[in-house]
Fold each of these.
Amino acid sequence: DLQVASLNGRLDGFQVKWSRFSGTVTFRDLIVPRNGGLSWIAQLADGWRRLRKSNAGRRVVTHFVTNDSPSNRDVLPGTDTSDPPRHFAAFIAECWIPLTLSGEGKNEPRFRRWQPAWKALVDSSGLSPEEFDAFARDCRLDFLQTLAEALPPTSDSPLRARGSQTSREDLDALNGAVFRLVA
């Protein structure tokens, strides 16, 4: 949906899924193909692969951005009924974030319970297991995002950090650019 290149050799690609009234995203939403196309994880993986190919020398980080929250009502594939919680929100907190941000090994005991879910992501992504591990280190699942206008004036958000006038001007310029591109 949107790409941002920075001077430090990084390119961030953003796929935005926004709901008028925020809800939940299930694990199934992430891995099941949509309307005869790719699943969301496959779309992210494909974008990551293409951006890396066309931007050699840059670190490519993909973002799935949504105002929705990860579900705490679904049950992930292969999870043990005697070892709750087994939902997507727990997977994100206990597996995805620690593995993708810290680079810890998937074979550590605390991650073993999530291996069937991890495998389902790999299978749905269209990447080899090795490629998927590299992709996952540079893939952010950004849930519960808010619009800048919805942030309270005392928020410590980076959007408010440089002063409201400069931030407002930057946000207005970005909004204008996005609307021109879409039109």
Amino acid sequence: MPEKKRQHYVPKSYMKSFSNDGKTFAIFNLKDKTPYAPVPYDSQCYADYFYGEDRALEDQLSEMENAWKTVLDNVRNQIPLSSDDIQKIKEFAVFQRQRTLAESEYGKQEKIELYIEYGRSISENKGLPFDDAAKEACIQYAN
């Protein structure tokens, strides 16, 4: 497998903290209320090249995750936190919210809708029809 192809949108170090054996964790599907047998946390919450094939963002996030892991370990171990530690927890929360698979899909859909609206507006301003072909062109351009 190419280096860093499997890019996690939930840090492995975070998932590991929910493991009893250091390798697996249990999954519970909230939607259908189904529990699943423990699975390797390494095989969850990732997509191939989620942050791109150039690895620049993946490498930057890895550095940040190391700092976050230290602070989150301190929380688990009930070690008093400094103001810098609290800032890192806030940073983790903001970054984690933005890097989920759902947020990525939402962003893609938002971009498509924006391009369709632009296309419709330009067509109207030029007196041209905005048909299915024009809409499909906007979708392709957005992707």
Amino acid sequence: MSLLKLKSKTEPLYTNKNIINYDDDLNKEIKETLTKNKVNSSLIIGEGATIKGEIIEENEITVNGSVDGDIQCKNLIVGKTGSIKGKIKSDTLYVEGSIEGEIIVKELLKLMSSSYVSGKMTYGSLQINEGGKLIGELEFKDKNIIQEEFKDWKTIW
């Protein structure tokens, strides 16, 4: 005779109601994530990295390394250790590092105190903090007017 009465453990019965199709949920989640990432995508070029060539991004680029080539994006941020030599087209440009080349900014070109910018620049509005250096040819363009590209401009370095 046993003093302990053990309960028998039974496995739950699975029916079609309890089966979850993870493939559908996973595909939906992946599609949502890719869509969200495309809307909020950005490119970061880290300190010590060197890139040669053309970069095109739909949204934001942050440069803390070195770029020798053309950049086209919506927003461009050049950090203190960042340097760019080439043609830039963007809506906004914030500079703490150095840029040499042709710059076309539809809206705001903002130079921080540690910045050095040299070349031919077209901008919608301009802000220069004390200590920021700007050397070259400047041209104001209303953002509603389509800008022609500079044909004969090259850096002299």
